[in-house]
Design brief:
Organism: Sphaerobacter thermophilus (strain ATCC 49802 / DSM 20745 / KCCM 41009 / NCIMB 13125 / S 6022)
GO molecular function, one term: 4 iron, 4 sulfur cluster binding
Radius of gyration: 22 Å
CATH architecture of the largest domain: 3-Layer(bba) Sandwich
Shape: globular
Largest sheet: 5 strands, parallel
Number of strands: 25
Structural class: alpha/beta
Strand content: 15-25%
InterPro entries: FAD/NAD-bd_sf, HdrA-like
Region (Disordered): 429-450
CATH class of the largest domain: Alpha Beta
Number of helices: 12
Number of domains: 2
Keywords: 4Fe-4S, Iron, Iron-sulfur, Metal-binding, Oxidoreductase
Length: 450
């Protein structure tokens, strides 16, 4: 019999630097924008390192979960995809698994896509694996090596020890401009309170005929509005989404303060969970034929809408959004309403006319103080009102596609991101700027939502 002492060894922490990961591009943030950027860069042949403080791929799309993909489609009676690049692959993969449901929102006058977050996570993981992306989850960026106008490396703390990622270019897809902030670069914060949401996924919901989902949703949302005060709910204008194929309801019926403070954030997060439980009690008691036997599948991470963003070469303004300005360096188009969650009880909701489109310029992605840092998703440079329209998942994917193409052009020419010809980026992302791209391609039907 082998001696047990030979099966162990004694170790002690040393001051020796941790491992170093070499990459062409380091992407900080593995949400929908960071994952998109990493996939696109890998497909261009680059070595990509993807790091996220969360322990899962997909960020808020999976861990909150947001539950609905908004901002992908045009506004009007016959919505088409505004951002088909990569998005069509994701939607097709979800459809093959019967894990998504197109819902026409009369309130937004466009399509949203309700999805199963576990299936979405596996799709993202498989795409990253196919590109041989180096993934570091549960990793927090603690320092950035800034050399003049270039970031040379970032230090990451993980449960396994310290790690340094050295790269030629960096993508800040953190949602909070965490990389720019850590590097000591200028950032913007809103001067108003902007609330997040404690989401909830319910299983065992009797959705009924998919054709009746609009009536079910309208009745449930009406109950939240009319009976919420009696159950102690703070938010009155809640939103509920159904995924009939999975007998799932996704509740977006709370408002949670999401300060950039580690203690206060979770204090408010726990308050949000209590609000969700009150909403569930309301629905079970007031709408038992649909929610009476439902149970909680997931109370995810509190959802964050808007916190900190970069100081870019251009701050997108709400006036430019309302006017539909098409910038010379436009790289994405959007039709989602202004959706600013600036009060505890409700939010500002300003939909656009049918056919309206507004654009995001490449300059809003480029940090003014760095040559090799580009932002994607909800930390691009925009005022709070403009950002409330372009921070949803469709534009997040579109800005990530453009960021990847900009980096690819810069790396092959060994130049600053600021020197990249915007026209060449536009050529590569052309489907995201022009044309009507139907989805599903067979013209499949969608449910009519509230």
């Amino acid at each position: 019999m082998a001696e047990s002492v030979s099966a162990v060894r004694t170790v002690r922490r040393s001051d020796t630097p941790g491992m170093t990961v070499q990459a062409d591009v380091c992407v900080v943030g593995a949400g929908i924008s960071g994952t998109t950027a990493a996939i696109m860069l890998a497909r261009r042949g680059h070595r990509v390192a993807l790091v996220d403080s969360c322990t899962w791929i997909g960020g808020q799309a999976v861990g909150v979960p947001i539950g609905t993909i908004a901002g992908l489609f045009s506004a009007g009676p016959n919505p088409f995809l505004l951002s088909p690049v990569l998005a069509t692959e994701v939607l097709d993969a979800l459809a093959r698994e019967d894990a998504c449901y197109i819902q026409y929102s009369r309130r937004a006058r466009t399509n949203t896509v309700v999805y199963d977050e576990v299936t979405a996570m596996r799709i993202f993981e498989q795409m990253l694996r196919a590109g041989d992306v180096q993934i570091i989850l549960g990793g927090v960026v603690t320092a950035a090596d800034l050399d003049g106008r270039r970031i040379r490396a970032v230090d990451v703390a993980t449960r396994f020890g310290a790690c340094r990622i050295a790269a030629r270019a960096f993508v800040d897809a953190s949602g909070d401009a965490a990389l720019a902030w850590t590097a000591g670069l200028a950032c913007r914060e809103p001067t108003m309170a902007i609330h997040g949401t404690q989401m909830c996924v319910l299983e065992g919901v009797v959705c009924g005929d998919p054709a009746e989902t609009r009536a079910v949703v309208q009745h449930a949302e009406g109950l939240i509005r009319e009976r919420g005060e009696a159950y102690g709910l703070t938010r009155r204008e809640g939103v509920i989404f159904l995924l009939p194929s999975r007998q799932v309801a996704i509740l977006n019926v709370t408002h949670v303060e999401t300060p950039l403070d580690p203690v206060a954030f979770w204090h408010h997060g726990l308050e949000g969970r209590e609000q969700v439980e009150r909403a569930i009690a309301l629905l079970k008691a007031e709408y038992p034929e649909v929610f009476g036997r439902a149970h909680v599948r997931s109370l995810g991470h509190p959802g964050i809408r808007q916190t900190r963003s970069i100081v870019g070469m251009h701050m997108l303004t709400v006036d430019e959004v309302n006017a539909g300005v098409r910038f010379p360096d436009a790289i994405a188009r959007v039709a989602w309403p202004i959706e600013l969650h600036d009060t505890a009880a409700g939010y500002r909701w300003e939909p656009f006319p049918d056919g309206h489109v507004h654009y995001i310029p490449l300059r809003s992605l480029l940090h003014a103080e760095a040559d090799n840092l580009i932002a994607t998703g909800r930390c691009i440079d925009a005022d709070p009102f403009a950002l409330s329209s372009v921070r949803v998942m469709g534009p997040c994917m579109a800005t990530a596609v453009a960021a990847a193409e900009c980096i690819d052009l810069a790396l092959w020419s060994d130049s600053s991101l600021h020197d990249v010809d915007a026209g060449k980026v536009q050529e590569r992302v052309a489907p995201n700027l022009d044309g009507e791209w139907p989805w599903p391609p067979d013209g499949g039907t969608s449910a009519s939502g509230a």
